[in-house]
Specification:
340 residues; acyltransferase; ACT-like_dom_sf; ACT domain-containing protein; Alpha-Beta Plaits; transferase; alpha+beta; GNAT_dom
Length: 340
């Protein structure tokens, strides 16, 4: 409901509710021009109808009164709900509209049609530009949207639009601390040294070619691929592993590859790199990650399975196509064994 912002207004409302034996369980107050909007969660006794509450609230100056039935989930405070909604949108871009609906308390949020008006005069309908590619229409019948609420959506858009490719730390099975970060041209020498330390077998597993060293002309494309991202595993200033995610012609799919220095293999580093690639892929809208391996390459399949992403393996020609579902919850893992 909407109330005048003056001393005692809310106290009179709660006193009226107490007179009907209603127990107040939660309260949120949003300042708006000329007053406030109050959301009150109450436990009502038997025989107290919504019409009775509307009459009492209006008698104490309440306007734009709306009542809806609630359950225990509505007792979560708005900050917690907003954080959960933001987390869901970061994990899955398709959940952005629902996150906005939760943050605004809107009746509905849907993609905006091209040419949609910025808003209507009443404030019950707003068009929100979260990113360059995401515009949503939010509607709410019971009360107009407030500037405070719209500021929360602006904060959400800043979070969604931020660079989430910053460094993250992992610990290997031997207790070593490793930093995962995006590669830059300044890492060229360290990446060249990584390849020089790798055995011929490890290089063949990654490139499917007989390399003894990395051609210098490859360094720039490895560190700044034109259609993807390169992730480095750093032990101090030393690169001990790297992985790439590259866009394909299918917008839902990206191709991945991993290289880990011999002495760092079987310590969970490949698993950490693949898991981080899955997060990067979800953030850019990819649903699937695909890797091509030789039939004898069990290391990538083992690391991919340990990452927690659902894995499917099938043989195509003389290679194994390893598909990871990037948008899936880690609790739902299905591993399809390789063909013998």
């Amino acid at each position: 409901m909407r109330l005048d912002d003056r001393p005692g207004a809310l106290a009179r409302v709660t006193a009226r509710l107490a007179a009907r034996d209603c127990n107040v369980l939660g309260l949120s107050v949003l300042p708006v021009p000329g007053g406030v909007i109050d959301e009150i969660v109450v436990n009502t006794p038997g025989g107290c109808s919504p019409a009775d509450l509307v009459t009492d609230l209006r008698a104490e100056g309440g306007r734009s009164v709306a009542i809806t039935r609630a359950d225990v989930r509505h007792l979560v405070d708005r900050t917690t709900a907003a954080l959960r909604a933001t987390s869901a949108a970061l994990r899955d871009p398709s959940a952005t509209a629902e996150a906005v609906r939760v943050i605004l308390g809107a009746d509905s949020v849907a993609p905006a049609e091209p040419g949609s008006d910025p808003a209507d005069d009443s404030g019950h309908r707003v068009v929100l530009a979260l990113t360059e590619d995401t515009r949503l229409v939010a509607r709410r019948g019971w009360a107009p949207f407030t500037e405070v609420e719209l500021a929360r959506v602006t904060a959400l858009s800043e979070v969604l639009g931020a660079d989430h490719t910053t460094a993250t730390a992992v610990v290997t099975s031997t207790g070593a601390g490793i930093v995962l970060r995006v590669g830059t041209p300044a890492d060229a020498e360290a990446v060249a040294d990584l390849h020089a330390r790798c055995s011929a077998k490890t290089l063949f597993t990654r490139y499917h070619a007989g390399l003894r060293s990395l051609p210098r002309r490859w360094l720039h494309r490895l560190l700044q691929p034109p259609r993807g991202t390169t992730l480095l595993a750093m032990c101090g200033t030393r690169v001990v592993g790297m992985a790439q995610v590259i866009r394909t012609a299918d917008p839902a799919e990206a191709e991945v590859s991993v290289l880990v220095e011999d002495e760092w293999q079987r310590q969970g580093l490949g698993t950490a790199l693949i898991g981080r690639l899955g997060s990067l892929a979800r953030a850019t809208g990819h649903d699937r990650l695909v890797a091509w391996c030789l039939p004898a390459e069990v290391g990538f399949v083992r690391a991919a399975t340990a990452s927690g992403l659902p894995v499917a393996v099938r043989r195509e020609d003389d290679l194994l196509r390893v598909t990871l579902t990037a948008g899936a919850d880690r609790e739902r893992v299905t591993t399809v064994p390789t063909e013998k």
